[in-house]
Amino acid sequence: MSGREQEYREIFMAEALEYYDAMSRHISELEREPTNEPALRELFRLMHNLKSNARAMGYTSIGEVAHQMETIFGLIRDENRAFGGSLVPVLFGGIDSIGEMIRAVGENEPMPDVERLLDNLDRLAKGEEPNLEEEEADDEEDVSRKLELSDLVYIQVRKLDHLMNLVGELIIDRDRIQTLSREINHPALTTAAAHFSRIADELQYSVMDARLVGVGSLFSKFPRVVRDVAAAEGKDVELTLVGEDIQIDRNILQIITDALLHLVRNAIGHGLETAAEREAAGKPGQGHLTLSAQAERDDVLVQVRDDGRGINVESVRRKAVERGLVSKAAAAHLSDEAVRSFLFEPGFSMAKEVTEISGRGVGLDVVKLAIDSLGGQLRVDSVMGEGTTFTLVLPTSIAVKGALLFELENRNYAIPLMHTDSVVSLLPDSFNVVGGLLITRLQGENVPVVDLRRLLHNGDGPLPPASKADLQGRQDIIIVNYNNRRLGLIVDRFLRQQDIVVKPMSKPLDTIDLFGGVTLLGSGQVCLVLDVPALTRLFLAKRP
């Protein structure tokens, strides 16, 4: 049995044992008060849920007994049978058998024989009397029976959040102790620091693992959404779900819920054509929408893919020029990928543009902001006439982030690795000045480069025109990537890559968009964490 199958079995066992305990309690209440409607409703609900869960896990005998019991409780609820007489011992025996079967699953043992029970339940459903012939039993074995407690405990998310915050503080202290250990260089302290570091790491990953849930818990809500939106739009849409067992932090899943809902609605409303339009274009009348998730290193990729009309890049290019987001001359040289990035600009889409760009811009700036708040990325790929794919690149956890540390004017700063494309060291000859901007050629692409100190300290005016004369010796450059735009930031010195715990800025510094928070380094120094989306927007606003 794989680890994932074992995890699902444990979850089934935890819920099934809870159901069994509740069934035993409610049927006793019903015996004392046969007209107790709340107890009857609960028994019906519990049987229905157990039936569904057991069948989903492949435990057919549990599912069959629960199904038959559900039928009897339904008859009692609808007043077609009374809770009394020979019906009572059969139902009590049925709940006892359910408990035995659940224990058999937990102990990996064969299921008990329930043929006689099923026969009696069938008789009751037909209005016949059950066969209650006594069988010899081991009195000692019978003497209300093994009691079971679940191995799983349900924990409120806020308690896990608090625990994660404490782990974050522990990680900061771990880094400080490691720094002190290196400085003092005492064998006993070095050994203790190494042990403390290992325990802190294990605790961190254990708490992070406890917060993980399968994306299927969100994906499973979309078949109904797709059905309703497709019906409202008069379209025939087939939904495919892929990667439902991929694990991600529960808080991240909560944050992307509205974004994913918007993308799915947009895909149906504006991406997919009507059956008549599709058939006229030589496509099947039924549109296809895929919601998928996959793990990629330390990230989770969630995609919304349709086989609709695609995005009209030339229409987007024209609208970007009309809005003043880019000059006509510059727009002509932009790649399709760069043009599609304009869809995420705030205010880019208005209602009158819906038909111009297949409605793809509506609200995408809000979706982008939600993803940015997680330190993630939102990408779009599209082919006219073939369809569009939106990709959400998400961290598996938002409590601890990988970051690149660097030095600028004798201060330490951090940039999240999520937005770090690469780091390079270049000589002045590697740069050109175009339109007052420093430009370097990297991987076949012209990348603008700016001195980070000028960007941070230039005030409200535009950046002064760049000059190669300002470059002295080798330049350390961090290439960041946001919204498919690469930007080189000149810094004083690269330091190292490490996991950091990002804390929110305190007032009034929390109003400064350029910083996404602060972290405490092992040296005890406070380190500002730069916000790459805000830096990119600032550069675009201040460039010469």
Number of helices: 18
Low-confidence stretches: 135-143, 350-362
The largest sheet is: 6 strands, mixed
Mean pLDDT: 84
Rg on CA atoms, Å:
31 Å
Tell me the span between the first and last alpha carbons: 62 Å
Tell me the CATH architecture of the largest domain.
2-Layer Sandwich
Fraction of residues in β-strands: 15-25%
**CATH-assigned fold name of the largest domain:** Heat Shock Protein 90
Number of separate strands:
18
Under CATH, the homologous superfamily of the largest domain reads Histidine kinase-like ATPase, C-terminal domain
CATH class descriptor of the largest domain: Alpha Beta
> Could you estimate the helical fraction of the residues in percent?
40-55%
Number of domains: 4
Oligomer classification = single chain
Question: Can you list the strand order of the major beta sheet?
Answer: 10-14-15-13-12-11
Shape: flat
Broad structural category = alpha+beta
Structure description:
It is a single chain. This protein has four domains: 3-142, HPT domain (Four Helix Bundle (Hemerythrin (Met), subunit A), Up-down Bundle), CATH 1.20.120; 157-211, Helix Hairpins, CATH 1.10.287; 214-395, Heat Shock Protein 90 (2-Layer Sandwich); 400-542, SH3 type barrels (Roll), CATH 2.30.30. It starts with a helix and ends with a helix. It has helices at 3-32, 37-57, 60-77, 87-106, 115-125, 139-142, 157-184, 187-210, 216-219, 222-233, 250-271, 275-280, 313-322, 328-332, 336-340, 364-373, 452-457, 532-542, and strands spanning 212-214, 237-242, 247-249, 287-296, 299-306, 377-383, 387-395, 400-408, 411-416, 420-426, 431-434, 437-442, 445-451, 475-482, 485-491, 493-501, 515-520, 526-530. The chain has 18 helices and 18 strands.
